[in-house]
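Tip: read the tokens left to right.
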């Protein structure tokens, strides 16, 4: 299994919990890819455009995650790597 899979496989009770977790993942991804540093060196106008694109993608992804977890029974809303992959596949169609 990929290293992130065990950290993803957890239960979330509310949309806010999922959003908080996604924010943590996004920050980690930006840092690990060096994108956070690249953004710091961009002109402010470009930073704002990039931040808006990230926010829209994140909101779209959250919507997909919520639809997936709604299919699960109460107390069984576990986001696994498979759930994330399904949502990412759906994102290819736009958000």
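Filled-in amino acids:
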């Amino acid at each position: 299994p990929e290293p992130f899979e065990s950290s993803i496989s957890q239960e979330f009770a509310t949309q806010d919990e999922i959003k908080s977790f996604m924010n943590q993942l996004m920050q980690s991804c930006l840092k690990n890819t060096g994108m956070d540093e690249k953004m710091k060196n961009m002109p402010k106008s470009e930073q704002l455009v990039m931040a808006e694109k990230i926010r829209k993608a994140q909101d779209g992804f959250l919507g997909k995650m919520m639809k997936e977890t709604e299919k699960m029974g109460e107390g069984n809303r576990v986001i696994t790597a498979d759930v994330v992959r399904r949502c990412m596949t759906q994102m290819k169609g736009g958000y």
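Residues 44-70 form the longest helix (27 residues). The chain has a mean pLDDT of 81.
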